């Protein structure tokens, strides 16, 4: 056989694959989200997943979705996108964010302010929420492109 193989994964599949792999670190029992930021040189400059802040014991804080707000996970959890931005190094201007779930309005603000210009997302399961509507509105105003990830590939990792 001569020549290079041609069933290699695309850049988008590669970086979304890393976002999905990162989500496997999440301890959230309901929704696991991973994110991967890539600069214009196709270099990964930040990764993250949703979880509680450093030093906050994830066996002690609640993982509930309902009940008194302070007894749910929502006030405590750091979203994958925010963690990827906070973990990043170097300039994010013009960067692309790959994320397993469309960003909420709070992360949308951080994405815009950090200079990220393109968002590629896998799931949009909260598409009709006010938060998603606000994110789209801000992305449109700020000139951040967002696109649904499309692929027919299946990537299996077995250790
Ligand atoms: N774009 C997003 C949206 C949500 N998250 C995190 C926040 C929670 O840990 C979880 C959502 O929980 P659910 O309401 O679906 O039980 O996902 C994120 O990291 N990025
Ligand atoms: Zn968020």
User: Biggest sheet: strands side by side, in what order?
Assistant: 2-1-3-4-5
User: Segments where pLDDT lies below 50 for 5+ residues?
Assistant: none
Q: Structural class given helices, strands, pairing? A: alpha/beta
> Which CATH architecture is right?
3-Layer(aba) Sandwich
Might you state the CATH topology name? Answer: Cytidine Deaminase, domain 2
Distance between the termini: 29 Å
Number of helices: 4
Radius of gyration: 17 Å
Which band does the percent of strand residues land in? 15-25%
Number of domain modules: 1
Heteromolecules bound: ligand LCLUPRNS, zinc ion
Shape: globular
Query: CATH class, anyone?
Result: Alpha Beta
Helix content: 25-40%
Cofactor: Zn(2+)
Keywords: Hydrolase, Metal-binding, Nucleotide biosynthesis, Zinc
Domain CMP/dCMP-type deaminase: 10-138
Pfam family, one: dCMP_cyt_deam_1
Description:
Residues 10-138 form the CMP/dCMP-type deaminase domain. It comes from Bullifex porci. One of its GO terms (molecular function) is zinc ion binding. It is a single chain. By secondary structure, this protein is of the alpha/beta class. It has one domain (11-144): Cytidine Deaminase, domain 2. It is built from 4 helices and 5 strands. It has helices at 11-23, 80-86, 105-114, 130-142; strands at 34-38, 44-49, 96-101, 118-123, 145-148. A 5-stranded mixed β-sheet has the order 2-1-3-4-5, sandwiched between helices. Helix 3 (105-114) runs parallel beside helix 4. The longest helix is centred in the first third of the chain and has 13 residues, at 11-23. The radius of gyration is 17 Å and the shape is globular. The model has no long low-confidence stretch (mean pLDDT 97). Residues 28, 30-31, 33, 50, 65, 73, 77, 79-81, 101, 103-104, 107 line the site of the ligand Nc1ccn([C@H]2C[C@H](O)[C@@H](COP(=O)(O)O)O2)c(=O)n1.
């Amino acid at each position: 056989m001569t020549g290079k193989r041609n069933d290699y994964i695309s850049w988008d599949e590669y970086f979304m694959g890393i976002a999905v792999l990162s989500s496997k670190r999440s301890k959230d029992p309901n929704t696991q989200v991973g994110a991967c930021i890539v600069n214009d040189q196709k270099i990964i400059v930040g990764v993250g997943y949703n979880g509680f802040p450093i030093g906050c014991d994830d066996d002690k804080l609640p993982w509930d979705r309902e009940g008194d707000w302070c007894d749910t996970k929502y006030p405590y959890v750091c979203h994958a996108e925010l963690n990827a931005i906070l973990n990043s190094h170097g300039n994010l201007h013009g960067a692309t964010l790959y994320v397993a779930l469309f960003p909420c309005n709070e992360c949308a603000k951080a994405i815009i302010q950090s200079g990220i210009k393109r968002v590629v997302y896998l799931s949009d399961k909260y598409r009709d929420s006010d938060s998603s509507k606000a994110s789209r509105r801000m992305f449109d105003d700020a000139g951040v492109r967002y696109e649904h990830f499309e692929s027919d590939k299946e990537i299996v990792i077995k250790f």
